[in-house]
Design goal:
Elements (H helix, E strand, L loop, with lengths): L5 E2 L15 E5 H12 L3 E3 L2 E15 L2 E5 L3 E5 L4 E17 L28 E3 L2 H19 L5 H19 L3 H4 L2 H17 L6 H8 L3 H12 L3 H18 L5 H7 L5 H12 L3 H8 L1
Parallel strand pairs: 1-3
Antiparallel strand pairs: 2-7, 3-7, 4-5, 4-6, 4-7, 6-8
Helix pairs in contact: 2-3, 5-7, 6-7, 8-11, 9-10
Length: 291
């Protein structure tokens, strides 16, 4: 079975420098000049991925949704998301890749990054436009991180501080400030639900099954999801199943029946109906469209 390539920080680092398993900060034009041949094809990362564009244009597709690239735009991606680039001419900016453990020895709160809406895995929330003073400050922070990364040894703690400042700045630009506007317990409950979906979406497809795992009522779970996301619990589960189905449909060697089996549907016809109801296309039509 063909799968999306999965890159880690070491196998995507500059060959002229010793690889670091936890952090990579680089000028975006240089990064692309080395990797564009493979990064324009859909792929996954095993790390957090942050990009700030300062010049150039093109498109960036994240989990089958395409965004235009413009100056001042910041992208935030979590491990496992699928994306690819298509640029028109030269682009400039900064890129930061960091591991899931990069902040864990630095912050007492191991789930600190969960407060940022742009790290939810929702591609719409992961694209933020920095304007005016925020754009200028964002560039300055990125440039300081680049300098810290070019030193030997790499000043990782300085990069951590600067990166946290950039994340807080982006949170301000997003206008959401989740941590300040929503009680922390609600945020943690939603995060727990999303983590459970990520681990169990192939086997569990009903809200009451997840509510039982969380020791809350299905009504409470549904109300919380609608309050924080505008979607029902069932819709969040469905969207994750559909996303995985789309990822698998890119692999042309897999038949619809094999994908249905992979996602634990009782048969291919039920999977086809489920997919068409959610997307308006049959699996075959979707596969043909993305070609």
């Amino acid at each position: 079975m063909t799968k999306f390539p999965v890159y880690n920080i070491c196998n995507i680092s500059a060959s002229s420098t010793p690889p670091d398993e936890d952090i990579l900060v680089e000028d975006f034009a240089q990064y692309i000049s080395r990797h564009y041949a493979k990064l324009n094809y859909p792929h996954r990362h095993a790390f957090y991925h942050v990009v700030l564009f300062t010049a150039g244009k093109g498109t960036h597709t994240i989990d089958f949704k395409t965004f235009p690239v413009v100056a001042g735009q910041a992208y935030f991606m979590i491990p496992g998301q699928v994306h690819g680039w298509q640029f028109e001419g030269k682009v400039e900016g900064y890129i930061i890749n960091f591991s899931e453990t990069f902040f864990k020895s630095f912050l007492l709160n191991s789930s600190y990054l969960d407060q940022f809406s742009f790290f939810s895995g929702n591609c719409d929330e992961g694209v933020i436009q920095l304007k005016g003073p925020l754009h200028k400050e964002g560039e300055l922070l990125m440039n300081e991180m680049l300098k810290a990364a070019e030193g030997r040894p790499v000043h990782e703690d300085l990069i951590r501080v600067l990166l946290l400042r950039f994340l807080i700045l982006a949170d301000e630009a997003s206008g959401k400030k989740v941590a300040n506007s929503i009680p922390n317990q609600k945020v943690l409950t939603l995060k727990t639900f999303r983590n459970l979906i990520e681990k169990n979406y192939r086997l569990l497809k009903l809200p009451n099954e997840y509510a039982a795992l969380m020791y809350i009522t299905p009504h409470h779970l549904n109300a919380l999801c609608q309050d924080l996301t505008g979607q029902t619990a069932g819709e969040l589960i469905r969207d994750r199943v559909i996303l995985e189905a789309k990822r698998l449909l890119v692999n042309e060697e897999m038949t619809a029946a094999e994908i249905a089996w992979n996602l634990n549907f009782k048969d291919a016809s039920y999977f086809n109906r489920f997919f068409k109801k959610a997307t308006g296309l049959t699996p075959f039509e979707f596969r043909k469209q993305i070609k």
